[in-house]
Amino acid sequence: MDLMTKIRTNNLPPLTLSDVTLIKRNIRNSRNSIHPRLPKSSLETQNSLNNMEILTNTVTNLKTLCDTDNIYVDGTFKSCPKFFHQIFTIHGYVNNKVYIPLVFGILGNKELGTYIQFFKHIVTYCSTIDLTFLPNRIFIDFEIGIHNAAKHVWPLIEIKGCRFHLGQSWWKKIQSLGLTNVYRDQKSEQSKFLRVFFGLPFLSPNDVDQCFVEDIMAIQPTGDKIQAFLDYVFKTYIDPSGLFPPDV
After folding, report:
1. Which of 13, 15, 29, 189 is 20 to 30 A off residue 236, Cα-Cα?
2. What's the CA gap between 20 and 14, in Å, rounded?
């Protein structure tokens, strides 16, 4: 029997706005009394997680993960819980049809050791349920810590960069050099020159160096900022000894 029925049956006076407010407050207080207190620091958060029993259907996800040759990883920061730095996700490309998020990690930083620990934890957990997590290829952004962590855990893995994140990196560099307005002026020679770079990722890795030297450098306009951007791209992404050479 609900509250309104009890009131009508017992000829009680109707509820006032004040009564409703008090009822809501009592419900909220009662609910809070049985809920655990929210942690107020990263240490309290970690202790809470260690004492919490978590039930999920991750076994199904892990089986799918271990059956795929290629994995795709990415981090997001805006939706990350308080006291953590990022939500780190591993996706699988299932049945050559759809990308599915299979593993989520809540990481406290972007350090190499944290990424290594994250990957190793998945490998170890998979082994306890008779699964082998040994991907052939990983697609990631251009954060060197993730690259090194993947190579540390899987020395033979092939690392491939993401075109979207590559474009982001170049756009951020354009902004940091004060070339934003130059880039947006589509009629200027400098803008046309900067836009040419974003076609490089669509070339075969073996053709990138030749295109850069013979085609892009041949049409380079003057300007210190333009030169700085060209040097940055060459040293980081074109030079075979750079952080992210064309075969990545």
Report:
1. 189
2. 11
